[in-house]
Amino acid sequence: xxxxxxxxAHSERATLRVGDVFLKVDSDQARIEAEVAAMxxxxxxxxxxLWRKPSVLAIAAVRGTALGRLGEPSAASxxxxxxxxxxxxxxxxxxxxxxxxxxxxxxxxxxxxxxECEWLVTNGVLxxxxxxxxxxxxxxxxxxxxxxxxxxxxxxxHVFVDGDEVTGxxxxxxxxxxxxxxxxxxxxxxxxxxxxxxxxxxxxxxxLDVIRAWWSxxxxxxxxxxxxxxxxxxxxxxxxxxLRSRM
Length: 247
Fold this sequence. Notes:
Keywords: Transferase. One of its GO terms (molecular function) is transferase activity. There is one protein chain. The strands form three sheets. A five-stranded antiparallel beta sheet has the order 1-2-3-5-4, covered by helices on one side. Strands 6-8-9 form a three-stranded antiparallel beta sheet, with helices on one face. It is built from eight helices and ten strands. The protein has helices at about 30-40, 80-95, 105-120, 130-140, 180-190, 195-200, 210-230, 240-245, and strands at about 5-10, 15-20, 20-25, 50-55, 55-60, 65, 150, 160, 165-170, 175-180. The chain is an alpha+beta fold. It starts with a strand and ends with a helix.
């Protein structure tokens, strides 16, 4: 009998694995519908949707293994990282989806960033100079961009490879029009050594300073949320180390 494995769980959603089936339980039915709609449109490999009911989506496991994990060295080859970059480029070249961006405006992002920086310093979570430096770096991400079809949460664990081939990209609930460099930044967060491979596979000039700015912005914004939801942003190689690497 297959065991039930909790892949991730917090107050908003949980993902369970039973054999070769993943069950995604989400408090927001709109996220489930968005995920199914996105997977039907994108020109990259995605999991097979087995069924969905209110609050639950069942998908098949994809072949291969995740490109890596935040805080751990990636065993994937440079060619696999380049293949991930090429897959992202195909996504970004696709027609925009027929729904508005699920992300925040530049003004909202700036306000959230200011609030989180103040909270981190006021509560002694991070040193003031570390926060100030990364707030300065993050500024480069707060600029207008031409929207493309983005994944929206392209963590390294959401890209699966088999050898040098991308076999599937999972977790599309945040997909929509967005900044191409945000996707590239989230994929390479904590794995700066593979940024060159990803950009080579992506196949066009990108602004590396903006990608690094997104690393700082993203990390500053999520430290509090991660701590409140049972994750450790201070673990080796994770968000706080990403912030320290900008000093």
